[in-house]
Amino acid sequence: MTDGYQERISTLLKEKNITNNELAEAIGKGKATIGRYLTKGPTRTYPSIEDLSLIAEYFKVQAHWLCFGVGDKHTDAEDITHAANQSAVTVAVYNRTEVNALLSGDTPPSVGSIPVPPEYKECFGVMYPVTGSVSYKWDCIALVNPNKAWVNDDIVLARLPGNPYPDFFTLVKVGTIIHVWYGDDTTKNAIHQVSDNDIDVLGVVRWGTWEKRI
Predict the structure, then answer these.
(1) Cα(first)–Cα(last) distance of the chain, in Å?
(2) How far apart (Å, rounded) are the C-alpha atoms in residues 124 and 178?
(3) Rounded alpha-carbon distances, angstroms, from residue 95 to 29, 66, 80
(4) What SUPFAM superfamilies does UniProt report for this protein, alphabetically (predicted)?
(5) Per the confidence metrics, is the pTM higher than 0.70?
(6) How far, in Å, are 18, 102, 161, 174 from residue 67 at the CA level?
(7) Long-range contact pairs involving 60-63 (C-beta distance under 8 Å, separation at least 24)
(8) What is the pLDDT of residue 137?
């Protein structure tokens, strides 16, 4: 069991606007017990697999995701097993704010993992921002290949001048100038024009998957 279960439980509590006390009552534990499950201090205690399964059942998410970060909230265990039997591999998924640490060789906390075809084993997953009504029901995970050179019209994960954290952009190079669009929307004017030295491309988006929210 990975320590990431703490972040996953905390995220579920915030998403559903559930208090520690309400969760404790739902699984037959005391409020203080839930607090000890979630703390990283000296009073921390570790929940049993049975308790985590009860928490998963309460939030209507998959236990293998809550306990181990395998798959996503709603991927059936049978689907995970089938993917493994088809030689699939799993890659970790991170928030954009953790990518700098990841590429620096650190081991930042992930938000989970997803099974992917073997050709994407060199990639890592990053939460892709979605807007509008779709964002209330779905999260998008982009697979980023840090070893792939980008070409025109690729969506990339990159850092622009003055922004310490990376974001997703579509790039088109004309001559020595790189035209930059935010995300995948190229219907409007480019938001930036930069040179090769002004943009730090961290990887190319090669594939993505959608995860349904609770």
Answers:
(1) 23
(2) 25
(3) 31, 17, 22
(4) lambda repressor-like DNA-binding domains
(5) no
(6) 19, 22, 39, 48
(7) 60/214, 61/12, 61/214
(8) 63
